[in-house]
Amino acid sequence: MSHLRIAILVGLALTLSAAFLANGCARTQVQEDDPYYQPLVALTSASMPRVIVRNMMEDRAGNIWFATFGGPIRYDTKQFTNFGSEMGLARQRVFSLLEDRGGALWFGSVLAGVSRFDGQSATRFTELNGLVHNGANWIFEDRDANIWIGTGGGVSRYDGKMMASFSTQDGLIHDSVYAIAQDGTGRIWFGTQGGVCSYDGERFSNLADQVGRDFENVRAMVIDGTGSLWFGGQEGAFRFDGEHLSSFTTEEGLQSDFVGSMIVDRRGHVWLGHPGGFPNFMGGGATRFDGKAFHKITRTEGLLVDNVYAMLEDRAGKIWFASAGSGVCHYDGEVFTNISEVELSPNDESDD
Q: What are the boundaries of the signal sequence (predicted)?
């Protein structure tokens, strides 16, 4: 087994284990030295380093940012640059990211809290100054400009001055929060290890009570053009229109029953990312729902590799796909383009 694959598997295993920590195991100090950080060979490169990518975004200047296990990486259409030190997260794995409406960049780490970069300096938020937990899985800005941070120990809300935090003691369905969305009524939705719940500004409501079934390990969540909530995880994908719940698995046309990421493109199509199974990530890929049918996307159709950990639609309409250490590619509707450091060979999919 290659050293890269070993590093990937160890890093993923540690992250998954950390997500199941109970509140009683909360850290009392920031762990500045991340033992599973994946150091990059060079500060800049002409192609994307082969590193675990957990999320992507495009900023207002057109730069593509990657949350990776080698720290934050920026692609300016010419080169890839690691910005861990500048963002206050040197040698830290980064799991989540956001550009807020004021233009500040937010980066959530696995062990060292969240860092906000205003273009000149970075400000760190950790348990020591109000963040509910130092492992930041998701960062979301609501329509009132509040920043919500989903962590391994609950969720925190930052209003620009103060940090307020919520946990199961306040009605949150589970303290491991993986995804956050806001619907047209202003209600905030949370995808957690223990299911789906919403917050109306006063109290939390468990979706299971409304639809008559439980959920677990919900990893992705979006609102589509009709206002319906989509969410997914180890049990497939679900669509909730406010009254009725629809469920989708491989039987209905998904590429895989595990959904790790979701986006809605400008045409209203819902894209589902599938990491695939461990340890070889086999069976993954992506699925696109055009409103009528599901369309599978794998290496057969041109995808770089059959494990998708994050997706993004850029301002040009290209769909980006990021993987667990095997590279990044984008799709313009006709052609997949690999922008990664090393072209894959058949041996990359083996266990040798």
A: 1-22
Whole-angstrom distance, CA of residue 98 vs CA of residue 110? 15
CB-based contacts of 122: which residues, under 8 Å, 6+ apart? 86, 87, 88, 89, 115, 116
- Domains of the chain by residue range: 3-349
Distance between CA atoms of 207 and 213, rounded to whole angstroms?
Answer: 8
Contact at 8 Å (CB) between 170 and 137? no
Reference 285, options 264, 301, 268, 267; nearest CA is 301
Q: How many CB atoms lie within 10 A of CB 342?
A: 14
Q: 155: closest CA among 128, 185, 178?
A: 178
Residues found in the chain: 352
- Coil, strand, or helix at residue 348? helix
Amino acid at 81: T
Q: How far is CA 259 from the centre of its chain?
A: 11
What's the angle, vertex CA 270, arms to CA 69 and CA 9, rounded to 5? 25
- Residue-wise pLDDT tens for the chain (352 aa)? 444 444 444 444 444 444 433 333 444 578 888 999 999 989 999 999 999 999 999 999 999 999 999 999 999 999 999 999 999 999 999 999 999 999 999 999 999 999 999 999 999 999 999 999 999 999 999 999 999 999 999 999 999 999 999 999 999 999 999 999 999 999 999 999 999 999 999 999 999 999 999 999 999 999 999 999 999 999 999 999 999 999 999 999 999 999 999 999 999 999 999 999 766 667 899 999 999 999 999 999 999 989 999 999 999 999 999 998 888 999 999 999 999 976 544 444 433 3
Of 346, 342, 347, the closest CA to residue 45 belongs to: 342
Q: Where is 208: in which H helix or E strand?
A: helix 207-211
Count the alpha carbons within 13 Å of 345 in the hemisphere toward its beta carbon.
4
Verify cis geometry, omega within 30 degrees of 0, for the bond prior to 72: no
Structure tokens at 324: 């667990």
User: What span, in angstroms and rounded, lies between the C-alpha atoms of 21 and 284?
Assistant: 27
How, if at all, do strands 44-45 and 53-58 pair? unpaired
pTM assigned to the model: 0.90
